Structures are given as C-alpha cells and as structure tokens.
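Pipeline run #58 for the internal structure catalog. This entry was flagged by the ingest filter as a single-chain record with no existing model, so it goes straight to prediction. Upstream metadata was stripped on purpose; only the residue string is passed forward. Reviewer on rotation: M.T. Logging verbosity set to normal.
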Amino acid sequence: MEEFLTVSEVAPRVKMSEQALYSAIREKQFPAVRIGARIRIPVSMLKRWIEEQSGTGSGQETNDGGQQ
C-alpha cells in the first residue's frame, strides 16, 4: 500500500517552506494528490520528483556537451 506524507513532512526534506511547497503544488510544479480536502504527497511521487530534479530520473541524460 502506498505511503502518503503531509506537506509539513515533505517541506524540510526538499528544503522548501510549507508556503513555497503549497504554491508549487498549486502551480503543478510538485506532485501531490487531494484526499478530500487534504493534500498528500505519495512517497513514490516524491522519490520520482527528487530523481528528476537531480538529473537521475528517467535515464534520458545525454553526454553531448550541451549541444542539440
């Protein structure tokens, strides 16, 4: 079963204030789900977001020297 975290639990882990995290969620820049009136962050979505932010996400990194 999926584990869910609250905004107050996640904010320090991603080094954001709770207000900034709520804003990022509202702007769809951070993954979250609504359960009733509450906002929760599934652990699996948090891990994926962290991987994407650190560049270790989907294995799509290239070593092309920044040229496209």
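catalog note: The chain has one domain: 4-54.
catalog note: Residues 60-68 have pLDDT under 50 and may be disordered.
status: ready for reviewer M.T.
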